[in-house]
Amino acid sequence: MSDHFTADDLMFKPGLMKGERILITGGGTGLGKVMAEACLMLGATVYIIGRRGGVLDATAKELMDAHGGKVVGKACDIRVPEAIHDMLDEVWADGGALTGLVNNAAGNFISRTQDLSPRGFDAIANIVFRGSFFMTLDCGKRWIAEGKSASVISILTTWVWNGSPFTVPSAMSKAGLNAMTQSLAVEWADKGIRFNAIAPGPFPTEGMSARLNPDQESGGGGGYRDMSSNPMGRVGDMRELANLAVYLLHPLSTYVNGQTIAIDGGAFQATGGNFSGLRSWSDDQWKAASEAIRATNDKDRAARTV
Ligand code: HXC
Ligand code: NAP
Predict the structure, then answer these.
(1) Dihedral, CA atoms, 17, 19, 25, 29, nearest 10 degrees?
(2) Which of 11, 73, 120, 191 is most buried (most C-beta within 10 Å)?
């Protein structure tokens, strides 16, 4: 497969998403970027959000050069409700209400829980738990005031069902978003706003690998390198994820509401799909992982423009 999708990678007819206006948090990289690409190719206008303006601009240009259409990058820190509000004012002014929101942005790193500080917990919870709720709330108020329908999908993990040792702030925060999905699916259904979630297994991305499998050179333990325990023996294919996201965003899936769908090759059924394998790590392995993760955090922070 080339770096970009072709029409053969998508299971939908061209133009399926024409008229749809989709905002994807964390859409400049990784899974957010491939969902943005699929929506764009099918005719949607796509807004991508992140803190590194340069990354967003490069992704927007790359996708439009490959496929045409309209992708707009907007630098915004979803931990800041006022910044979300201002950003959404601009999005609404640029063509009206969004028709879909993808809560995809996240922060995560593996760590023994006893090594976390309160700020370490907040670093993850403020993005995943609070930031995704703030995005949903600000969009929701607008949709309700305008009587507009919409589809919201949140990108979770299968740990929402069984927890995940060594990524406890993420497991707690994603479980909270799972509760948000189930709750608002009911509360706002009569307003035409529906909520579903996707729980991916391992889909290799730079952001995930650097923080969840930082010792790839030596074989790793908790990341995607050893897939022998996955029933399908492989990681996810980005096309599989992108097609599922399009399905849930499109109005023809409207009766699907309040669901969290795993896309993991059956790993959750077989192994629980979490980081319990890291129980055998030594102090030295944890020290090396922490140093590698912090180096990635420092590099990414230096590129932030908000
Ligand atoms: C313990 C750590 C740590 C580590 C950071 N901290 N790394 N604690 N172990 N490895 C602590 C710091 O010491 C500090 O606390 C606090 O966390 C904040 O650190 P900062 O570097 O200042 O944080 P910040 O700049 O806010 O960055 C947030 C971040 C960063 C979450 C730490 O990684 C980030 O922005 N990530 C975004 C991208 C990302 O994470 N993508 C992965 C998603 S993948 P003190 O007390 O020392 O000040 C994913 C996949 C799941 O979710 C499913 C897989 C199957
Ligand atoms: P990624 O590339 O690191 O994506 C995370 C994105 O979130 C980045 O684009 C980042 O951009 C953005 N972000 C982080 N904090 C933000 C903030 N405060 N405000 C705005 N944007 C912010 O990792 P990924 O693997 O694609 O992960 C995407 C989603 O999939 C996450 O929810 C993750 O938990 C989930 N997931 C991934 C996997 C996997 O195997 N990859 C498996 C299960 C679930 P900036 O740093 O520029 O802000």
Answers:
(1) 50
(2) 73
